């Protein structure tokens, strides 16, 4: 009985049939009985109506017509290889499953796992369920959960058969693969406890990658693809599957979130997360979408261009959020931080609050930075793109170089004067700055300033206000050259010019401390210039 297919239970079924006893066949034992009957050669040429004939009738008329039974039978075939394969039971089960998944969902009238997701109130009576089915159409991915119970080798063959039918959209295929990955991949790295687990998960990940829809359109969520990439790296998947994932992720990187990009580093680097991988993804994204952006810039007007840059606003927010995450790593170098920050175009950051928060966290976690490094980091920010809350926070932040704080104060006065308001009274002077809490301030940023709609509107409104206020300001300044509130920016500029010139002459230590953004306070108001050569030189010397 060692080599007998199906074991003693299958032999018992055959024996009962020979003695004319009642035999009960179901989805769990029919394959074993079929293999045993083949082994015993219970064919029609021996006796008419023999067991093989009766089992084939049962398979055709009952098993292969049932959705759930087809899946159960397919699961039982693995223990009976190669008999089940040679008898074509495996192939017929796969074809039955693939044919049913490719049917019009309106013709699905059998039970499937998706039905069990109804709420308790939807399951009061059977008649209520039937009534609701008339008004709640069957979803296209109704079959996804049921085939998730198949092992990877059988699942792969079923998915190939479904794709070969040519009736399933790429989005549904992507949803099915996502569901299967959730079912079988471990929730964390700790699930890879042994070499055998790593080997099994490597096969699983590589198979899922090759089953991804061939279309490069967005068929799978970016979060799902990044999860696959993370496991592909951890289990040592081949270069081919990893490169395929990189291409797909780079195409839709704007749909990711910062947490998805936190992929542990497996190289000899000392950083916690793989920064080079993220840098590569960002570079690919920028390279892919830059050509489309240039075309839009040539073909569309300014307003359409602003409204069409949601993608760049999203990638800008993503990079700033990711920078804030990696800034807490004490081993992240300034060059890596700067390189990733500058990987996206300036148009992706109409507001610099997110970048400021990331830089401030980096300064807090790296207190031993040199003045040159601080200057390099703060040079990434443009205080003119700070919101009011960011300006108030920066003015009280003792981690920032003095020059940045002075620029923030000056810009706030310029902005207040340009809209006819009094300068903010609740911003502390640089000499009395206290340590600002970046974490608390950062929590309010997503609610008030990180909305894409708000950023897009702010870009349009700021452009219109600058044009309107520029005209009004020029008219009023020509009439009121003697004084008034609108002369405050000019006075402030002269004061700050003297401050920067005097600080420049106090030695190297003081000048290097006053690092800041790419624009000095004297260049914040391009509408006013001075003709004297000495003033021009003073302004140039004040730029560090």
TrEMBL record:
SUPFAM superfamilies: POZ domain (SSF54695). InterPro entries: NPH3/RPT2-like (IPR043454), NPH3_dom (IPR027356), SKP1/BTB/POZ_sf (IPR011333). Keywords: Ubl conjugation pathway. Pathway: Protein modification; protein ubiquitination. Pfam families: NPH3. GO terms for biological process: protein ubiquitination. Residues 424-438 have a biased composition (Polar residues). Residues 469-479 have a biased composition (Basic residues). Residues 141-415 form the NPH3 domain. It comes from Aquilegia coerulea (Rocky mountain columbine). The lineage of its organism: Eukaryota, Viridiplantae, Streptophyta, Embryophyta, Tracheophyta. Transmembrane segments: none annotated. The keyword Nucleotidyltransferase does not apply. This is NPH3 domain-containing protein. Residues 512-523 have a biased composition (Low complexity). Belongs to the NPH3 family. Residues 424-445, 466-544 are annotated as: Disordered.
